[in-house]
Amino acid sequence: MNRFFDELGDRLAQAARARGTVIEAPRLEPAVAQELLELAGVTAHTHERRFAPLACFLAGAAAERLRAAGGGAGPEEVAALIRQVREEIERSTAASQ
């Protein structure tokens, strides 16, 4: 994605190692990053602004649970999952206005 996020992924993996667990450094794919930014924007405009990072965290947790359950967890599948939920939020917000 970019250097900042690559380094952040490396730091997260190092922090896990310091706690006795080896994990692969997480990487942020461009399609997923775009959908996360869209989700954050919708969340910030339809709910409290401070909820945006937490919404993205939950999306990441859902993506990992999808992978662990044996579902498709490639970048395209994760982006589609996030897009589906974002669009549902947008529709429900538009309907209530």
Question: What features would you describe in this structure?
Answer:
The structure is a single chain. The chain is mainly α and 97 residues long. It has one domain. 74% of the residues lie in helices and 0% in strands. It contains 4 helices and no strands. α2 packs across α3 and α2 runs parallel beside α4. The radius of gyration is 15 Å and the shape is globular.
Could you name the key traits of this structure?
about 100 residues; globular
| Count of helical stretches | 4
Radius of gyration equals 15 Å
Helix content: over 70%
- Count the beta strands: 0
What is the element string, with H for helices and E for strands? Answer: HHHH
State mean pLDDT (0 to 100 scale): 93
Largest sheet: none
Assign the structural class, choosing from mainly alpha, mainly beta, alpha/beta, alpha+beta, or little secondary structure.
mainly alpha
Which geometry do the CA atoms define? globular
Query: How many angstroms separate the termini?
Result: 36 Å
Low-pLDDT stretches are none
Number of domains: 1
How much strand?
A: under 5%
- Quaternary state of this entry equals single chain
